[in-house]
Design a protein that fits this description.
The protein has nine helices and 19 strands. The chain is α+β, with helices and mostly antiparallel strands. The strands form five sheets. The protein has an eight-stranded mixed beta sheet, with helices on both faces. It binds zinc ion (ZN). The site of zinc ion has 5 residues, from α3.
Length: 354
């Protein structure tokens, strides 16, 4: 017995959760989703790409909505199969993100005449290194399939529309000095001591909060690592602190780097950029996205952390996270989802899509 896409999305969530699908072990779940879409939602063109399943309508609607969900999970933690207790479904993948997948698949199979054309992207390997990410592979191999006016990723967002995302850079702030025996410290120049001024600037730093399209992004500039020291009797000639800047998406990576240089201006240090990922503007003012916000009753908030939303933003497509489940429970042994949220998200998206 395969997946029944027309069943209640709560039951469909349980059916998906009970197909184990740790990253790179997604052939079975992809097979079942592909078969179910081909037989139960014949108004979709269906294509298979590795362990991703893509489906789209071509009804000539004025706008296209892309619904995307990853089918992989982190390794199960002795928390399968799923079970329901006190209004919550427990198990690996219940919130991240098979409940979101279930909502999308159910809507695809029950709305034959949507008001927007729909593209459905069920993709593999989101939970591991980004070079393996199925969405990245689709972007390289089937870029045409990612064209849309708005993209909705069904990641757990507590039923809020989470839009955009912050950018992140890491820099190593390094001080140099002169090595010497600590018994004759005046012959040396202590690199660790020079970091004191760096840490003072970080402690005094006042991060911005920025409102963009109704989403408030709170920035943060933090030391995340410190290195230095040679031996218990040596004045060190090198020391560094690694600083992570999480910045609102109204700054580009270049602007963020320039800002960090400003913060440490005048200090005797070198600053090296080691890692960068751009943020994503929420883009909620665009019509297809604005209609989604309206359907959700304005329940919008900023997304913290980097997600696949940014991939769509880089393609110029407004993208949001919207799915059942508390993002803070993802990847935990006690992962679970309130089943009422599955119903609420389904109802809201049905209003939007019909
Ligand atoms: Zn996820």
């Amino acid at each position: 017995m395969g997946l029944d896409l027309r069943a209640d999305p709560i039951a469909l969530t349980a059916a998906l959760v009970d197909i184990p699908s740790e990253s790179r072990h997604e052939q079975r779940i992809a097979d079942e989703i592909e078969t179910a879409l081909r037989t139960q939602a014949p108004w979709f063109e269906v294509v298979r790409n590795g362990d991703a399943v893509l489906a789209r309508t071509d009804l000539g609607r004025p706008s296209r909505v892309l619904l995307a969900g990853h089918t992989d999970t982190v390794p199960a933690a002795d928390n399968l199969p799923s079970h329901i207790k006190n209004g919550e479904m427990w198990g690996c993948g219940t919130s991240d993100m098979k409940s979101g997948d279930a909502v999308f698949l159910h809507l695809a199979a029950t709305i034959a005449e949507p008001s927007h054309d729909i593209t459905l992207v069920m993709y593999d390997c989101e939970e591991i290194e980004s070079s393996a990410n199925g969405l990245g592979r689709i972007e390289r191999e089937l870029p045409d399939w990612l064209k849309a006016d708005v993209a909705i990723l069904g990641e757990p967002s507590g039923g809020f529309i989470e839009a955009g995302c912050q950018g992140t850079i890491r820099v190593v702030v390094a001080a140099t000095g002169t090595r010497a025996h600590s018994a004759r410290s005046w012959l040396g120049d202590n690199a660790i001591h020079k970091l004191g001024a760096v840490l003072d600037r970080l402690t005094a730093y006042q991060p911005r909060s920025v409102d963009i399209d109704g989403c408030v992004y709170r920035e943060g500039l933090s030391a995340v690592r410190i290195d230095g020291g040679i031996a218990g009797n040596v004045i060190p000639d090198a020391a560094s602190v690694t600083v992570n800047f999480r910045f609102a998406p109204d700054r580009s990576v270049e602007a963020a780097v320039a800002h960090v240089h400003e913060v440490f201006d005048g200090l005797d240090v070198d600053i090296e950029l080691t890692d960068a990922a751009a943020g994503a503007l929420p883009g909620l003012a665009k019509p297809a996205a604005a209609a989604l916000v309206a359907a959700a009753g304005g329940q919008v908030r900023a997304k913290y952390g980097w997600t696949d939303v940014s991939r769509f933003a880089a393609l110029g497509i407004p993208a949001v996270n919207y799915g059942p489940g508390d993002p803070n429970l993802a990847h935990k042994v006690d992962e679970r989802v309130e089943v009422a949220q599955i119903t609420a998200v389904t109802d809201m998206l049905r209003r939007y899509l019909t």
